[in-house]
Amino acid sequence: MQQQRPQKWFYGVDSIRFILALVVMLSHFDNVYAVALKSSALLPVKTAGVFLANAFDGTSAVVAFFIISGFVIHYPSKKGIANVPQFWVRRFLRILIPLVIIIIAGAWFGHPEQTVTWSLFCELIYYAIYPALLKIRISWKTKFTAAWVMAAVFIAIGAYSDVRAFIHQTNTNYHGYYWQFGNYLTWIVGLPCWLLGVLIAEHIDEPRLVNTRTVILYRLGVFAISCFCCFAKFHLHLSYILSMNVFALLLYKWIQTEIVYYKSQQPISGLEKMGKFSYSLYLCHPIIFLLLKRVIIFNGFTYPLFIGLTILAAYLFYLLIERPAHRLARSINRRYFTAA
Fold it and tell me: What is the pTM of this model?
């Protein structure tokens, strides 16, 4: 049997990225429809409002982003990195140039971008340590297990107040957020999620087929549990820092299933194209939303307009900033490093 050649890219990944970025964006928009429905005296309408209020869980989407990142970083480097500085230049510049610009812009508005930039600091640290992880001569499954245990111990000690809040169902010192350790330590919590993506990359070339029914079941399951995690964070004192690394195990299976599925199926072309600027949408939307609220009244009538204008502005940011950053990284690598 002829050995299957590694793919250069996997269709469907960009579609997932756009949907995840959209979920994060919607989680940061004030959901005027949910507020209106929850104020109804009719129980079915009120229930619909509660559901809608928890339908877009941004933290679940960020954890899924971590898994995808681990996958796309590891897949082309499974056999090793020929030139580590070249790898770092390409990865760091793509993230850092847009990130620095948004942080500078955010200083004028009270740094609304901090709701998303914590995850990018995690990404930069993962890129920094990945070459070292690649050289450790134990299986990636063992590395994942060690990282998961390390994160669990770190959470149990550092986020003890959230553990206590869940056990005793109290608001006392309850934080609730996944990124409560800040920009420089949250990577420890998220590392096992990122390594789940590496595990996907390790086995994605193995012959396998997935049917549509299985994909749909995974999608429904992931959506339902993400809604529950959002609800539980606010009403059951179940902090994201306690729930997300467990939920990541299902997200891992879902993303793996999606990638395998689209090896034999055609993704939606529009979503694939929009996925190209998912990073810009993820990074820009807090500032764009704030700016739009200064010039447009935000209500049920203008809510769709806010969504459309935010996506459009993010696309312009991609054209003006993110895509040139990609080209600069490639240009520097071509000029100063031997091609890998």
Answer: 0.95
